[in-house]
């Protein structure tokens, strides 16, 4: 239901802003999402850029509500990548 349109740089060493730019408009969602409540599952969240980009695509496709469930969350101090 969610598709990555293009290959992107690895997020690992990118700053928060660079992560958001890297994922801008990278995901598209099936129109079958329209009117549904969606649970988005991610393994690790650092800045939230991937979840944000995926959720935005799902909402554009008509999802009523998107809930992100994350297995691991990195500590905020790890977010300030130079």
**Tally of contiguous helical segments:** 2
Q: Give, in order, the helices and strands.
A: EHEEHE
Class from helix and strand fractions:
alpha+beta
Cα separation of the termini: 34 Å
| Whole-number count of domains | 1
Main attributes?
82 residues, alpha+beta, two-stranded antiparallel ribbon, two-stranded parallel ribbon, 4 strands, 24% helix, globular, transferase, Orotate phosphoribosyltransferase
Written description of the protein model:
The chain is an alpha+beta fold and 82 residues long. It has one domain (2-76). The protein has two helices and four strands. It has helices at residues 16-23, 49-60, and strands at 2-4, 27-29, 37-45, 65-73. The strands form two sheets. A two-stranded antiparallel sheet has the order 1-2. Strands 3-4 form a two-stranded parallel sheet. It starts with a strand and ends in a 9-residue tail after the last strand.
Topology, element by element:
Blueprint: E1 2-4, H1 16-23, E2 27-29, E3 37-45, H2 49-60, E4 65-73
Parallel strand pairs: 3-4
Antiparallel strand pairs: 1-2
EC number: 2.4.2.10
Keywords: Glycosyltransferase, Transferase
Pfam families: Pribosyltran
Brief account:
With 82 residues, this protein is α+β, with helices and mostly antiparallel strands. The chain contains two helices and four strands; from the N terminus they run βαββαβ. Belongs to the ComF/GntX family.
């Amino acid at each position: 239901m969610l598709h990555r349109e293009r290959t992107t740089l690895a997020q690992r060493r990118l700053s928060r802003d660079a992560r958001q730019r890297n994922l801008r408009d990278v995901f598209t969602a099936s129109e079958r999402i329209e009117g549904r409540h969606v649970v988005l599952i991610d393994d690790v969240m650092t800045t939230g850029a991937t979840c944000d980009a995926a959720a935005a695509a799902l909402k554009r496709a008509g999802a009523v509500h998107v809930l992100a469930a994350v297995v691991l969350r990195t500590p905020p101090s790890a977010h300030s990548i130079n």
